[in-house]
Amino acid sequence: MIHANRPAFLITVDTEGDNLWSQPGTITTENARFLPRFQALCEKYGFRPVWLTNYEMAQCPAFVEFARDVLRRGAGEVGMHLHAWNTPPETPLTDDDYRHQPYLYEYPEPVMRDKIRFLTDLLEERFERKMVSHRAGRWGLDAVYARLLADHGYRVDCSVTPYLSWAEYPGDPHGRGGPDFSGFPETPYYLDLDWIDRPGDSPLLEVPVSVAPSRGGQVGNLSYNKSSLFRRAYRRFFPPLWKMIPQDRRLSFRGMRKILDHALANRWPCVELATHSSELMPGGSPFFRSRAAIERLYGRLEILFSAAAKDYNGMTLEAFQRSRSGIPSSE
After folding, report:
1. Residue 222: pLDDT above 80?
2. What is the pTM of this model?
3. Domains plus CATH for the chain?
4. Which candidate, 211, 207, 244, 209, places its Cα nearest to that of 319?
C-alpha cells in the first residue's frame, strides 16, 4: 500500500553473471537460482525490486522465467544493465576485453549506440515491456552515454554514486578510467545532457544510489583505490561515508540504518539500495563467499527492510519517475 507523503524505498539489483570481479573468460549464471528468496523478502515488506538485467542474464532461461513471473504479478521491474565487453555486437577494444572489462563510454559512439540498441531490443523481446530504467556497467556513465539513453527512450538512470570516484579503476588500459561522481547531487534530478553533474531539462531522471557523509566524516574526492594499509584500515572502522550498498560487515548495515534516518531528516524523496544478483549466492562474489555469509546478509536485510517499511513506500524506478513527473502510477 502506498502511503501519501512518504519517501520511496528503491531496491536495485545489477542482474549479471557469477563473480564478474574475477574477470572470467566464460560467464556462468548460477546465481539465477538464488533470486526468488530475495524477491520473497522484498515482497514481505512491500518492496518492489528493480532487476537491472545484462546480456547473459537475458539469455538465462531460469532468470527469464523468474523475471516474467515478477512482472506478471506487478512485484518488481526489469531494466537494463549494460556490460560493454560482452554485449553484442562484440567489437574488441583491448587485447582482452573480458579481462579489462572496458567502460561503454570508451568505445566509439556508433558502437555505444549499437550495443544500447541491441540490449534494449533483446530485453523488450524477452520481457514484453518497454525498457525505461538503466544502470551503467561498472557505474560508467558520461554525457554521451546519457544522451544515447534518452534517445532510446530511457526515462530513469541510477548510475551515479555521489561523493565517490571510480577513476582509478581502469577499463581500457589506455583510457581515462571510471567516472568521478564526487561532486554530483545526492538526491534525484533531471539531467543536463551536456553536464550530467547538474540539473537540466532532459527527460532522463537520475536517481543516485544513496550515499551520505557519516557524522564528522571528512568528504573529499573519495576513490576506492590502492591506498595505504593504514588508510584502508581507518576507513573500514571509521568510514567517512555511509552507503546503501550491503557488505558482509555489521558496520555496513549500521550505516544503512543511518541513511534511512538521514534521508527522513533531510526530506529526501527516496532512498536507493544497490546490490548484485551474484551477491545473493554463496561464492558468487568476493563479498559473500559462504553460506554463513549469505545467512548473515539475509538476517541483516530483514532488520533493515523491517525498519524501512515503517517510513517508506516500496516503489520501482519506473513508478518513482512517474511520480516525479506527475504521471499516475498503477503501483
Report:
1. no
2. 0.93
3. 8-324 (3.20.20.370)
4. 207
